[in-house]
Amino acid sequence: MSSEKRTVSRGRRAARGITAAAAAALVLTGCSEQVQRGWLPGSRETTSNTAELTDLWVNSWIAALGVGLVTWGLMLWCMVAYRRRKGETGYPRQLAYNVPLEIMYTIVPIIMVGVLFYFTDQVQRSVDEETEDADLVVDVRGKQWAWDFNYQYDGEERYYAGVQAHLTGEEGVEETLPTLYLPVDESVTFELNSRDVIHSFWIPAFLQKRDMIPGKTTRIDLTPQEEGTFQGKCAELCGEYHSEMLFNVEVVSAEEFEEYLQTLPEGQLGDEYDRNPNLYDDVTANEGD
Ligand SMILES: [Cu+2]
Hints:
The protein is of the alpha+beta class and about 290 residues long. It is built from 6 helices and 10 strands.
C-alpha cells in the first residue's frame, strides 16, 4: 500500500468516527431529559409521587446496566481468552464443581434481589401512605365500559355519570370521553370500586395504577402538582369494549375546579347502581343454608 493510500483510508476512518460521535452526542443531548427520566410519560413533578417512582425506575435501570456490563464483559473475555487455538484438538480440559464459584453465584444474586426489594419496598410504602382527610375524595366506580366519578369536596357531594364514548377512529371523539377533574396542589384520595367485574384505574402520566375489585374498595392517594390534560384508561381486560374504557383527566386550578363542580348534579351514585350490590351479602347468606 502506498503511503498516500494509507493516509486516505486513515482520514476516512477518522471522518467516520467523528460522524458517529456527533450522531451519538446529538441523540444523547436531544433527548437527555427523556433519557434521564427513563422515557416515562408525564414529568417528575406531575404528582406528589412521580419523582420517587421515576427515581426508582431510573436507578433500577442503571443498576441493571451495571450488572449487564459486568456479565457481558465476563462472557466476551471467556470467549476470547479461552477460544480454540490453531492446532488444538479434542475437548478442552473439563472441570466440575467449583465450590467458591458456586457460593458466589448464589450469594451475589441474593444480594442484588435484596437491594432491589429494599428500595422497591421503601418507595411503595411511601407512595401508598394514606392521606387522612384529603381535600378531595373521589369515589371512582368502574363499570363495563365507562366510569362514574363521585366527588366529595368542601362538604359538597356531586357526581359525574360516565357514558361510554364509542371510538370510531375519527378525531375529536376523545373529547367526549368521561372526564375526571382534579384541583392542582390539593390532596386527593381515590376510592376505587367496581360495579361489575375487575377493572383497573390507570393514569399513565401519574405512574400509578390499581385494580378495582367488585365488593372491595382499593385506594390511591396523591396530590396533582401540574395543570394539564392527561389520559386515563382501564388496565384490566374486562370484556368486549375494554379497549374503549378510557377517560380524560383535567388537572385545573382550585377556582376552575369549583366552577366545574357547580355544573354537576348533587349527590352520589353509590353501590345501589352496582350490578349486584348484595353480591357478598348473598354469598354469606347462602353459606347458612
Ligand atoms: Cu375495565
